[in-house]
Structures are given as C-alpha cells and as structure tokens.
Amino acid sequence: MTIHQITEAECRLVLSRGSTGRLGCALNDQPYIVPVSFAYESDSIYVFATFGQKIEWMRMNPQTCMQVDEIENVTQWVSVIANGKYEELPEDDRPHARNLLEQRHTWWLNALAERRSRVEDLLVDPLFFRIRIESLSGLRATDSLQTGS
Amino acid sequence: MTIHQITEAECRLVLSRGSTGRLGCALNDQPYIVPVSFAYESDSIYVFATFGQKIEWMRMNPQTCMQVDEIENVTQWVSVIANGKYEELPEDDRPHARNLLEQRHTWWLNALAERRSRVEDLLVDPLFFRIRIESLSGLRATDSLQTGS
Question: What does pTM read for this prediction?
C-alpha cells in the first residue's frame, strides 16, 4: 500500500463529490465527531444540522475540521481534511445554503419540514451553518504494486 | 425523522460489528480526524495505523474520541462516540492486538508486512495502539412516522 498526499485541487474534487462527512470539534482538548450532510462551494462547506453538543461546542470554539473520505477498501481510499471556522448563518444567508443542500438532500429537508425532529423530549429546529475553509489536505492510499526506490 | 439516544449496550453492539471508524484527536483546540481500521474488545478499541499527524498529536494530548456509524440513509443511521485515552501498545501487548485485528483485516496486515508503506519519501512502520474507553454514547435516527405526544 502506498500513501501519498494529494493536491488541493484533488481535495476540492473529493469535497464536491461528497455529501456526507464527519465534522470534528473540540473543547478543552476533548475532540468530538458527528456525521453530517453537507454541500461544498468555493471556500465554504454548508451544513444542515439540528441543535446538539456539536453546536454548543462550536459556539464556544469555532475551530473545526471536516473529514470526507471515499473508501473503496482498506488499501484503496482517499481522505480529505478541511480545517476551518464555524459560522452560523444569519437569516439572509440561509436561502443560498438551503438551495445548495437541496440539490443533494431534497427529501431529507422535506421530511424535516413536514415532521419535527425530536431529541428525547426536546423539539429541535434545523440549523444552517458553514465551515469557512482555511486549509485543505488529503491523503490517497493505493494498492499499488510498485515498490519505489 | 426521530433521533434518540441509545443505551450503552447498543453502543457496544455497534462497536463490535464495526471495523472502520473515525478517530478524533485535538491539539490547541484544533480537532483532527482520520479514518482507521479497528477491533473492539471489552473496554478497548485496538487500532493499527501508520505514523503520522494523529500519532504526534495523541502523544501530546491522549484525549481522543472514536466515532463509528452505520448509515442506511440520511434519516436512518446510528452513530456511536467512544471517548477515551490513547495508549501506545508495548511490544508484549502487540500480539493480542494483532490477533484481534487479523480477524477483520488479515489481508491488509499481510499486505503491509509484505510491502512497505510509504508517505512521500518516509518509510512508515505499522504501529499498534488502543483507546481505553472512558465513556460511550450514541444516537439513532429513524424515519419513523410516529409523531409522539
């Protein structure tokens, strides 16, 4: 197995093909990860989520990372990390985010609009935010037979 | 869509069925995530990895989380978070970890034993560590039609 870094352009391709990623946040040196649905556009990753620990944490520490991968098998995969700042979207910016997300997640948004999402007894409303990308990096593993020099 | 917390026993079932997870670590409030292959046993998650940023970071801050999910679709999924401490395995403990991991990842271990993994020009050796689980939590989303009270 050969692991090599991919270019920023390749990272952006992976983000543009992806629709589910893992969002990481941290508080007092404790990391936390949640799977999220997203849409990527230029230097932002738009996310549609419901309130919970991740939102609480990112409000306190906006430093996040989004990890998106395409795993063929354990020796053939690509994994991209986008580091960036959490920004909750004000009312005015939500239609744009909603449009982008609807291209990939229409029926989910519809489902949420029709029903109401519940975490135990708390009603939770959908919430839009973006990660403003500050750096991108990625690794690709290939099951190559070349041994190199 | 209904989201509810699952029991610790259910979390353990998800871990025991899983073989790929996302490992989160953090340094100076910056989170970092990598996909890893793992094997779960009682209160430990055993991981086989190659040296890289995650190892550097976890040596400096051993507080980690492992996120493992089973995603059917965006409204039907389960996601488990295991928080715990990073422990690099000394020589004596490696055979046990290797045995556990071999049950799920035999050919990968073989592949790595036969070839040598390369990150750019650095030869990297496989490395075994475990996450000693300190807390477990999980959420399940179901596309249920029940509206509750």
Answer: 0.84
